[in-house]
Amino acid sequence: MARIRTVKPEFWSSEQVISCRPLARLLFIGLWNFCDDGGNHPLSPRTIKALVFPGDDMTSDEVSELLGELEGAQLTRRYTAEGKQYLHVMGWKHQKIEKKNFRHPPFPAALHDESSSDRRPLDAGREGNGTGEDQHNSLGAGVEHPPESVDPTAACQMSLEWKPDPRLLAAFAKRMGLAEALFTHKAIGAFVCHYAASGRFETQLAWVSLLVKWIKRDAATSASVHPFPLRKASEPDFDDTSWAEGLMVKA
């Protein structure tokens, strides 16, 4: 059952939110309406598209890409329970709701521990029941960056030494349904060489998103190219001109 959620002003200045495209931010807010009171929802791009963008000309793949962008920014996390995949909104804290409704399996406690001082919670809004009662809810993103990971919001110019962050790449590839085996050194190198000469600046998140789109386009192009079939031995060879030998008239 959908619930009323409101957005606090701090949402718009959050670094994690700013790192995402406007449409991804809209999807993030839309998810709050349909998550249960634990901040959880089935991870189904088709269903989420129907709920959040019912009147928009969008495909499930586009919604899946936006979900990957949110996960890459650590605004959401995916998890598996009872054989199904779910997403969890990071930073979703306990809510003061009279009748809580937990419709989906809870996010694993080991991953939901937000007591670390390294996390930066995003106070994104409050929840009301539509009758004027103030039901507080802290909703948003707690982000921690492991030492080996790059800052997804950091902007950089593409260079020949650039490499995608493995965690961001895995999240985007998962959402786009691409096997990680497609991201070979040669494939990534072609992408890097193409953009290195442009002098373009993007966030790490945007570069990984562009890379995934590049690989997906290449995979689709390769699948659509079919070699000409070899001529069977029993078929006539119209390139054979031996039949014309001896037909030339001598002057």
Automatic annotation (TrEMBL):
Residues 104-151 are annotated as: Disordered. Residues 157-223 form the DnaT DNA-binding domain. It comes from the Bacteria. Residues 111-126 have a biased composition (Basic and acidic residues). This is DnaT DNA-binding domain-containing protein. It comes from Pseudomonas coleopterorum.
